[in-house]
Amino acid sequence: MKDQKPETIDEFIKTSPEASQEIMYALKALIEAAEPRAEGGISWNVPVYKYHGILAGFSLAKKHVSFGIDSLTAEVRRILEGKGYKTGKKTIQIRFDQKVPAAAIRQLIKEQARLNEI
Questions:
Q1: How far apart are CA 12 and CA 37, in angstroms?
Q2: 108 CB contacts (<8 Å, ≥6 apart)?
């Protein structure tokens, strides 16, 4: 990325390596479609969406995009790991050569929005 810090999610994506952009645009579209009331912006130098608190976000690594969300359960992690994704307690790593697990991410966003409303 360039030395100048991006001020919007689109700037973040546009200044990221080309190999990562398709994944990040897909994540952006998924988040915005699953929770249209979410407000996107840059926090901690990465794209973050907020809806009654932190909803979800993503960041760039050398060979993957990391999607972060608090509602990621052990069950969903096991399913995703079975499909070849690496996961952490609250993250899903999507390698540049992998497709975005759209159904799982959509479900996680809706669950996190519901939890944030409580």
A1: 21
A2: 56, 69, 71, 72, 76
Cα→Cα distances 75→69, 93, 99, 108, Å: 14, 16, 20, 12
SS3 59: strand
pTM: 0.95
What 3-state DSSP class applies to 65?
Answer: strand
Q: Locate the domains of the chain by residue range.
A: 9-112
Domain 9-112 has CATH 3.90.1150.200: yes
Residues 73 and 112 sit within 8 Å (Cβ to Cβ):
no
What is the tens place of the pLDDT at every residue in 18-43?
A: 999 999 999 999 999 999 999 999 99
Alpha carbons within 13 angstroms on the beta-carbon side of residue 100 total 20
